[in-house]
Amino acid sequence: MIEAEGLTKRYGSKVAVNDLSFTARPGTVTGFLGPNGAGKSTTMRMILGLDRPTSGTVRVDGKQYRELREPLRTVGALIDAKWVHPNRSAHAHLRWLARSNRIPVSRVDEVLDMVGLGEVAGKRAGGFSLGMSQRLGIAAALLGDPKILLFDEPVNGLDPKASTGSAASCAGSPTRAAPCSSPATCSPRCR
Ligand SMILES: Nc1ncnc2c1ncn2[C@@H]1O[C@H](COP(=O)(O)OP(=O)(O)OP(=O)(O)O)[C@@H](O)[C@H]1O
C-alpha cells in the first residue's frame, strides 16, 4: 500500500505537487492522470525517495522508501528507462541490482526471459532502442518480485505486441477505483 498525506513539492516558486493525499491499495491499479507538467513524475520520485517533499509524507507499506532494507523486494519501479550505465550489459545491470538487494542471480535470467531480452542479455545497454530499454527497466522492476510496481509511462516505445500484452495482463487483475483527491490524480479502472 502507498499512502500520501499532504504531499507538496516546490521548486523555488514553482509548485509541482500541491497538498496531494491518496491511498493506493493492494490489488488495484492506480493511475496518475494529468497534463504535461501536472506533477505525476514528481509524485513518483517522492514515493521512491528520489525527491524530498517540501511538506507532507508518503509511505510504502508503512515506511519511508529509505527505511526499506531491501526495497526491490517491496516496490519495483521504472521511472527513466535510460537510467542505465551505457557500457554495462543488460545482465550486468540487473546483476548489481540483484546483489544490492540479496536477490539470487538466477532471477536475472528469469526476468530477462520474461521481458523478451534473453537473447541480448550480454549486449551493451547503451545500444538498446527505447523499447528495449523500457523492457530492461520493467525487468529491473520485477527483479525482487515486489508486491508494488510503480511505472512512469512504461509503454513508451514498446511495440504493439508488448503494449497489448501488458493491457491483457491488466484486464485479468482485480481493480477498484480509489478516491481522487486532486485533479491531477485518480485511479481509473484497468482497461
Ligand atoms: N528538478 C526540477 N527543478 C525544477 N522544476 C522541476 C523539476 N522537476 C520537475 N519540475 C517542474 O515540476 C512540474 C511537474 O513536473 P513533472 O515532471 O512531475 O510533471 P509530469 O506530470 O510528470 O509531466 P509529463 O506528463 O510531461 O511527464 C513541471 O512544471 C516541471 O517543470
From TrEMBL:
Pfam families for this protein: ABC_tran (PF00005)
Nucleotide-binding among keywords: yes
Keywords from the named record: ATP-binding, Nucleotide-binding, Transport
Entry keyword annotation includes Transferase: no
Renumbered residue ranges of the record's region Disordered: 162-182
Feature: compositional bias, Low complexity: 162-173
Entry superkingdom: Bacteria
ABC transporter domain sequence ranges: 2-190
Family designation: Belongs to the ABC transporter superfamily.
PANTHER family xref list: ABC TRANSPORTER, ATP-BINDING PROTEIN (PTHR43335)
Protein's UniProt name: ABC transporter domain-containing protein
